Amino acid sequence: MTSTSIVDGGDAIVTEIVIAGSPDQVFRALVDPRLVVQWWGGQGAGQTFRCTDFQCDLRPGGQWRSIGVDAQGHPFEISGEYLEVEPPHLLVQTWIASWAAQVKTTVRWELRAIPAGTLVRHRHSGLAAAPQLAGSFRGWPQMLGWLGAFIEKHETVNDRWPPASR
């Protein structure tokens, strides 16, 4: 179950989820190119897309890039720079999405071990700079659900993506 709130006068979206896995498992799923393409994507809530390629240079100042397609086969790209990297508890990165007029925002992942697994606290901030685009970033609860399903049940994007759309 995820919880989401809009904070700081609409500048940030904060989503939390508990995932039955270790912080190390969650962290690896966020940065390992072989794992990211397995979980990042699916259909629902008006958002149908999948990541087909993920690249990263996991260090402060290192670049990352995600390439994918939507249900109609239109390409998208998200890229940025890692600002803070403290495995397996903290990852902060800039976020520039091709569909968001190249507006630079910040995504912060905090991972905390708890008895049930890992509390993932995700914060996407900098949205007030382009309020007309803020709605396009409200799919985080769904994405964190995909991340949790991957770690807990080994569910991949192929399990959520109809064969005719692959």
Give an account of the 3D structure:
The protein is of the alpha+beta class. It has a single domain, classed as 2-Layer Sandwich (Alpha-D-Glucose-1,6-Bisphosphate, Chain A, domain 4), CATH 3.30.530. Helix content is 20%, strand content 43%. The chain has four helices and nine strands. The chain has a nine-stranded antiparallel beta sheet with strand order 1-2-9-8-7-6-5-4-3. A hairpin with a 6-residue loop joins strand 7 and strand 8. Helix 1 packs across helix 2. The chain is globular. 26% of the residues are buried.
Report the total helices.
4
Structural class: alpha+beta
CATH class: Alpha Beta
Shape: globular
SSE arrangement, N to C: EEHHEEEEEEEHH
Detail the poorly predicted runs: none
Give a short account of the largest sheet. Answer: 9 strands, antiparallel
Number of strands: 9
Strand portion:
35-45%
Comma- or semicolon-separated keywords:
Alpha-D-Glucose-1,6-Bisphosphate, Chain A, domain 4, 166 residues, nine-stranded antiparallel β-sheet, 4 helices, 9 strands, globular, alpha+beta
